[in-house]
Amino acid sequence: MQQNIAPVENRFRKLKRIAIDETSYRKGYKYITTVQDLETGEIIWASDGYGDEVLKVFFESLTKEQRAGIEYVVADGAKWITRQVEAFCPKAKRCVDPFHVVGWATEALDTARKRLSDDAKKNGSPS
Questions:
Q1: Any residues with CB less than 8 A from the CB of 73 and at least 6 apart, and which?
Q2: Which residue among 16, 28, 61, 76 is the one 20 to 30 A from 37 at the CA level?
């Protein structure tokens, strides 16, 4: 049975736009970090764990030319991602993914709504 897995040199050849994410599994006790090529939609790299040292392994697997070719990096607001992108791809634009933007906005609105409701109750106004 033959697998259709691109050789490593082809997966990283012309990276321009990538997405980086980490997720937990096994009830939040284990983490995995992934890098996706946003032009092909393929996950091109994954590793157990998360953080500076894990992401550094990915960037160090690229040539200087490959790192210089990365124009956009989409990710959540994790500082460790920002640090590694700034260190290895200083010209890349760092973009926050829409999923997290919507989540943060919803959380902020919910916090404001709760505060206003509490204030109204304290002042004797009906909610």
A1: 17, 18, 19, 20, 81, 85, 89, 92, 93, 94, 95
A2: 28
- pTM reported for the whole predicted model: 0.75
Residue with tokens 């040199």: 9
Phi and psi of 5, rounded to 5°? -110, 125
Confidence of residue 2 (pLDDT cuts 50, 70, 90): very low
**DSSP conformation class of 41:** -
pLDDT tens figures, 44-73: 999 999 999 999 999 999 999 999 999 999
Cα 125 from chain centroid? 43
Please give the Cα distance from 71 to 67 (Å, whole number). 9
